[in-house]
Amino acid sequence: MRKLELLSPAKDLECGIAAIDNGADAVYIGAEKFSARAAAGNSLADIEKLVHHAHQYGCKVYVTVNTIIYDEELESTRELIRGLYDIGVDALIVQDFAILDMAKDIPCPPLHASTQMDIRSVEKVLWLYELGFKRVVLARELSLAEIAEIHEAVPDMELEVFVHGALCVSYSGQCYASQYCFNRSANRGNCAQFCRLKFNLEDGNGNILLADKYFLSLKDMNRLDRLYDLAKAGVVSFKIEGRLKDANYVKNVTAAYSQQLTSLISRFPDDYTRVSYGKCEYDFTPDLNKTFNRGFTSYFLDGRGEQIADFDTPKAKGEYVGNVKNICGRYFIVSGVSSFSNGDGLCFVNAHGILEGFRVNRVEGNRLFPHSMPEGLFVGAQLFRNNDENFQKILASAQTKRKIAVTMCFEETDKGFRLSMTDETGRTASKTMELKKDLARLPQHENIKRQLLKLGNTIFYSEDVEIRMNAEWFVPSAMLSDLRRRVCDQMMEIPMSTMKNVASVKTFEIQKFVHPKQMSYDYLANVSNALSAKYYVAPYSSFEIRQPHGKKLIMQCRHCVLWSLGQCRKQKTSVSRKRLDAENLYLSLPDKRIFKLEFDCNNCRMNVFVE
Question: Phi, psi at residue 191, to the nearest 5°?
């Protein structure tokens, strides 16, 4: 029996609570400092509130402390870790080895190795396991076969993988484009999204081969239908990306994946179970097509075989809703069966290949009246809805309830009555009340059950009450209600676990790692302080501290522009009449900055360089 976990993102306390209430087994959230999403920091007080809410259901809270850390920040990092340990967080997701080193000297929650550590090999996972990491977050680019290989080689290491959300085009932790171009470090939580920019593709003579395309912009990941395959490969935690997304996004995506995970477990009850407790009662039907997305891909789960990028736009298209049938002055007519609402956001790709968006002011059946008619709209244009106003309202008002199953027993005692309650986690609470026993004129069992089953304002639910009485004693409804409330209060005071987990960092001599360097680029290890330097055999220095002269590797990508254009050298096929010169291909920005593309076909990888 393996325990499976759905891990949802939390921008803030509201999103974290929404994730738990809609079926997450765990949430990950950023602290005030050292989070890989600098715009999504949270106070210790808010994180503590989230911990309290999550632990009611046996859910966990992981805090991201996954930036690289400078020497002058080491002491404030220690203070943060102490604070997070004191409020009972369940793990830290980290990138910098300085935190691993600190865990030897101070109380520290268990450590999960962030995907920012660039975890894509058995060798790396084994090293992290030997150092004391409890879990690794694998690189998004890995296939099912590669994940299974890692699990087989290091079976005691927990494996976490992303299943949904935005994709970085570079291996995480190995992207320096934002730092180089904008002085905003992705490894410090300030990515400027270089990969979502528009480029020209040029040859070695500066000739433009393709203009104004988003060559590095990937679609969004969607592995909703692949959870079983991932579980078979050894994955225990399914992670949803989105720590900058709002509560509506979190509700919808979490609910969709939670229902799918519950369905998986119901099919294989002897093999899998959830790590947390509670049953969700949804008042909406989740639909991933109606939430922000750039189109979907399963990425490299089955190897290279589908288009994973969208060269036309980095923006959310949303769901296809029909074609433009006629344009009639102030309105246009849509063919298809989709229904629309006032306020819907629609978009289309115009004749120049540019995505145009607009908002619908008024709807009359399939006649749509925009605020102003888009200039590029044409008959036959495919329409997409990237904001479903009605669905967003449903999500905003949704009041999903998560309830823990309990069994209840009401029995008489020498001086009165006792109510006992046991929940699905094994916690038990019991309260008694003294009452003179008088025989009732009418049967009491139904009223006793009715009063005791009024659990609507609690996190508990029960379908029946076992009643053990020797006679039909009269029990006032008010006293039954008071007894029920006291038992529920007592149950809420019993924690799921009374022990704080501590990182199991190994105390033996540090086993140093020889980083698999690309040429002489020592900054790929992302070493930015003296503590983390101890874990490597060479005096590495991060890109943020010391940029090398000359040629610089700023991205390592499994995504390949050549493959996307039908020009893969390994497959030796081409859908284009003119074969591109792979040795002399460049991406250029409108400001004339040039980036050299080099294709490592032996490893099926594209690297991006600057000089």
Answer: -60, 135
